[in-house]
Amino acid sequence: MNHNALQQARAAALAAARQARAAYRAGAKQPTAGVAPGMTQANMIALPRDWAWDFLLYAQRNPKPCPVLDVIEAGAHHTLLAEGADIRTDIPLYRVWRGGQLAEEVQDATALWAEHPDLVIFLIGCSFTFETPLQEAGIEVRHIAEGCNVPMYRTNRQCRPAGRLHGELVVSMRPIPAQRVADAVAISARFPSVHGAPVHVGDPQALGIADLAKPDFGDPVRIQPGELPVFWACGVTPQAAVMASGVPFAVTHAPGYMFITDMPDSSYHV
Questions:
Q1: Are 157 and 106 in the same domain?
Q2: In terms of domains, do 204 and 220 share one?
Q3: CB–CB of 42/125 below 8 Å?
Q4: Which residue range is the domain that position 182 belongs to?
Q5: Is the pLDDT of residue 194 over 90?
Q6: Cα separation of 245 and 21, whole Å?
Q7: In 3D, which of 259, 137, 155, 128 has the Cα closest to residue 210?
Q8: What is the DSSP string of 43-81?
Q9: In total, how many domains does the chain have?
């Protein structure tokens, strides 16, 4: 691709990211896999300042599921990763947690910042970021092909605890033809800031997953003959910690409904 074409492609991807955020701000609701291809997507968790240190330590001790892309000062809601964006409105669907329980889902979280003005926002890398390179390598991403959300599962693997936080690893799953698994591993491994290489390939029961047709979050997808389930660490892991630890209050993205940044996925390619 020549320089001009590359510039045009980048400009188009950036415009797509900004259009998507504007649409979510205006009330559109859709899972974000496949939206603004080539742009980095992020998981989000916002916690009162009193819990922020615990979570920062939790993320530092569990970098595979919780790779931190940005931490936003208490009460602030803008990020250098997306010019002009507002974290309170620019994600298509939010989850509100009270006492470790899911209380509600909302499309505009502004009122929650008014209720808790000291919220500290963490943006966590998302595996949707390396799906474009997988597709460019000719590997079908099943949930995008089927127009649904990625399937996600709670596992029997415990994360390393930190302060008051503990909980299990959550994984996302993509079926990959057996002969392309090595390619999928190699491609995703080049993106350590967005979960990197898979944590497991094959038998779901080794992760304590009883039935791939019944994900804990997202939607089930078809697994065809000759394909293996491949599992990546997932940024819903912080939500599992909120539940397991009984965190008094938190706001997160809804699984599969990410914050789309202005950062090209190449920013996180090593």
A1: no
A2: yes
A3: yes
A4: 128-238
A5: no
A6: 31
A7: 155
A8: EEEEEEHHHHHHHHHHHHH-TTT--EEEEE-TT---BTT
A9: 2
Q: What is the DSSP string of 225-250?
A: TTEEEEEEE-TTHHHHHHHHHT-SEE
For residue 86, the domain's CATH number is 3.40.1640.10
Residue 93 Cα to chain centre, angstroms: 13
Q: Which amino acid is at 118?
A: D
> Using CA atoms, how far apart are residues 150 and 264, in angstroms rounded to an integer?
21
- In order of 62, 158, 213, the CA distances from 209 in angstroms are 21, 14, 10
Same structural domain for residues 261 and 234? no
CA end-to-end span of the chain:
20
The pair of three-digit structure tokens given for residue 168, joined into one six-digit string: 């299990």
Cβ proximity of 203 and 231 under 8 Å: no
Looking up residue 176, the CATH number of its domain turns out to be 3.30.2040.10
Confidence (pLDDT) at 1: 60
The answer to whether residues 232 and 127 touch, using CB atoms and an 8 Å cutoff, is yes
Average pLDDT, integer, range 31-40: 90
Same-domain status, 23 and 45: yes
| Model pLDDT for residues 98-153, shown as the tens digit of each residue | 999 999 999 999 999 999 999 999 999 988 878 888 999 999 999 999 999 999 99
Dump the DSSP string for 174-201: EEEEGGGHHHHHHHHHT-GGGT-S-SEE
Burial grade of 270 (CB within 10 A; 0-12, 13-18, 19 or more): exposed
User: Do 174 and 132 share a domain, yes or no?
Assistant: yes
